[in-house]
Design brief:
- The structure holds 2 protein chains of 2 kinds.
- Helices cover about 30% and strands about 30% of the residues of chain A.
- By secondary structure, chain A is α+β, with helices and mostly antiparallel strands.
- Chain A has a single domain (about 15-135), classed as Heat Shock Protein 90, CATH 3.30.565.10.
- The longest helix of chain A is centred in the middle third of the chain and has 21 residues, at about 45-65.
- The N and C termini of chain A lie far apart (about 40 Å).
- In chain A, about 45% of the residues are buried.
- Chain B is built from 14 helices and no strands.
- Chain B has helices spanning about 10-15, 20-25, 35-45, 45-55, 65-80, 90-105, 115-135, 140-150, 155-165, 175, 195-205, 210-220, 225-230, 235-255.
- Chain B is flat, with a radius of gyration of 22 Å.
- The two termini of chain B are about 35 Å apart.
- Classes of the chains: A alpha+beta, B mainly alpha.
- The interface between A and B is large, with 37 and 42 residues.
- Chain A: InterPro entries: HATPase_C_sf, HATPase_dom.
Chain lengths: ~140, ~260
């Protein structure tokens, strides 16, 4: 258990950007969920917010995994920012179906993350579908009353 | 296979209405394929009961899905052991399922072998979390836990990660859930596909606070008190808002299947 000092300049909240690439397969989703939770923990999110993020990432990845082309990759970026953590998830798909077309999944996602955006871009031979969400620590500032 | 139970049958009549089927089950030869089918139907018809009981044990950190599985095992045992002549199935099934759930909590140690020191740390951090939550009126941050407990942040991290290992979540967990049926586990009353489909857009129309309350209550299974704390209103208000929102959704769906 070593406690190494790292230059604060190189790190935001003590966490650097993380990029993860896994098979776009449901069995990989828990892995990404854990990544997100661990990063949020190290960013000192309160424990409820960590759980919110864990669930939001799970939902975002699940939506994309269902859209993904067979044997393709799910790419995930975790980017700590001043306000919170930005998570971007991306797959390549055969059909350009927007993640928000699953109203329930999208509903859960938007309720759990501070902001959520999606994009569907035509690429060579298919579509590139992304979800980007921003999670912020603490519900207090989001919901003043 | 006769897997379509009459959806109109009210739940409270279920016990008596099933008595004949339990007698039939008892009469069938174990090798008879009809017995397996009937047994499956009886279990499926009482899944609401298992889910409801599982939810009562749904504490922080315990996966509701896991608890539902445990409750389902209890339900299967109840179906197998119930003697129709001895009265109400529920009266027999509820203690059986509760017993299964309690045993789960008693017997389930750590899914992963964790050093004893870390187990103790986990207990300390869990206690600190409760204390601080009450003191702060919100969930504590890892740094606050560290300070409160006189631990290093790294120790708190270890304990939090270890807590996650207390009950192992299979990497196959997602595979076991068919993609289209992922929301039925959280709230059995939303289990019907049509309603679920219709509900999405309706939820989207709700004000943000009501949406949040609905998600916390039905998708996170949080108590009204916890929701009140999270949303920053009184529990009375949560209760009122829930009732009002459900009333609204119910009216919009034109059905009487949602209950607070």
């Amino acid at each position: 258990m070593s406690e190494l000092e790292t230059s604060p300049v190189t790190r935001t909240h003590g966490v650097r950007d993380v990029e993860v690439r896994v098979w776009a397969d449901a069995e990989q989703v828990p892995l990404l969920r854990s990544f997100a939770a661990d990063i949020a923990m190290r960013m000192d999110f309160d424990l409820d917010s960590i759980e919110d993020l864990r669930m939001a990432v799970d939902e975002a990845c699940s939506l994309l995994v269902r859209a993904a082309a067979p044997d393709s990759a799910l790419l995930c970026w975790f980017e700590p920012e001043e306000l919170g953590i930005r998570v971007r998830v991306r797959v390549d798909a055969e059909h350009g179906v927007a993640p928000s077309s699953d109203p329930m999944g999208w509903q859960i996602l938007t309720a759990l993350a501070a902001t959520v955006t999606e994009s569907v871009d035509a690429i060579d031979g298919g579509y590139r579908i992304s979800v980007e969400l921003l999670a912020v620590p603490g519900p207090a500032e989001v919901d003043p009353r | 296979m006769n897997t379509t139970p009459d959806p109109q049958r009210p739940a409270d009549k279920g016990a008596d209405g099933h008595a004949d089927r339990f007698r039939e089950l008892a009469a069938l030869d174990p090798a008879d394929p009809r017995r397996a089918a009937l047994r499956g139907d009886l279990v499926a018809d009482h899944m609401d009961l298992a889910r409801n009981l599982a939810r009562k044990f749904d504490r922080r950190g315990d996966q509701l899905e896991d608890l539902i599985q445990v409750a389902t095992i209890g339900l299967i045992k109840a179906v197998d052991r119930f003697e129709a002549d001895r009265g109400n199935f529920y009266a027999f099934a509820i203690p059986t399922i509760m017993g299964e759930l309690r045993r789960h909590f008693r017997d389930t140690g750590w899914a992963v072998r964790v050093p004893r020191q870390l187990k103790e740390l986990h207990v300390t951090v869990a206690a600190g979390r409760n204390e601080l939550s009450q003191k702060l009126g919100r969930a504590p941050k890892p740094s606050e836990l560290a300070e409160h407990l006189g631990l290093t942040k790294e120790q708190v991290y270890e304990a939090l990660v270890a807590s996650a290992a207390k009950q192992g979540t299979s990497l196959d967990a997602r595979l076991a859930e068919p993609a289209g049926d992922r929301f039925g586990y959280e709230d059995d009353r939303l289990a019907e596909v049509d309603n679920r489909r219709a509900l999405g857009p309706l939820l989207a129309e709700l004000p943000e606070r009501e949406q949040k309350i609905i998600v916390l209550r039905f998708f996170r299974g949080m108590s009204q008190a916890d929701i009140a704390r999270r949303v920053g209103v009184s529990q009375m208000q949560v209760s009122r808002l829930l009732a009002k929102t459900l009333e609204r959704l119910r009216a919009a769906l034109g059905e009487d299947t949602l209950a607070g």
